[in-house]
Write a structure and sequence with these properties.
By secondary structure, the protein is of the alpha+beta class. The protein is built from four helices and seven strands, in the order αβαββαβαβββ. Helices cover 32% and strands 19% of the residues.
Length: 155
């Protein structure tokens, strides 16, 4: 039952992205988060088509709170997410939104992901699952170091 609820939470966040390190306006009551995100999409991400946003607002209690953005259409959300690499040398960043439990599971897998990337392995997160070279990584595989892709003879 708990996993079903978690799945529903993930589905409700499916169209959302989080935008980090966007300075807040002096007058927080008149800040137009939708306009801010649309400006970032056109200027920083170089997306020339109109990005349709259902709503955008700040969340959390940090000094610079992230903006959660719900896109009207999933393909546009994916276009924005896949363009995030263009922010590499800026302070801005974009990530998918997940429930806290999924975030915690992903955080536990980060050391494995970093080690695999350091060994030139292809890594992909799908929700709370880590795939290395197309294979699902399982915790019970132990903590043995992953060999370099170039040095392995199994490929």
């Amino acid at each position: 039952m708990k996993e079903e609820i978690l799945d529903l939470q993930c589905r409700s966040m499916r169209d959302n992205l989080l935008f980090y390190n966007i300075k807040e306006a002096q007058n927080k009551e008149t800040e137009d988060c939708v306009r801010i995100i649309q400006d970032i999409c056109s200027s920083e991400l170089e997306i020339m088509e109109d990005v349709s946003i259902e709503r955008a607002h700040r969340i959390g209690k940090r000094e610079i709170r992230p903006i959660v953005v719900k896109f009207t259409r999933f393909p546009q959300r994916e276009l924005v997410r896949k363009s995030a690499f263009k922010l590499k040398n800026t302070d801005l960043s974009i990530s998918e939104q997940f429930p806290r439990e999924i975030q915690d599971r992903r955080k536990q897998l980060l050391p494995v992901l970093k080690q695999a990337k350091a060994n030139n392995r292809k890594t992909v997160f799908v929700k709370d699952k880590l795939f290395i070279d197309g294979r699902l990584y399982r915790q019970d595989q132990g903590t043995t170091p992953l060999p370099n892709r170039k040095g392995s003879q199994s490929r």
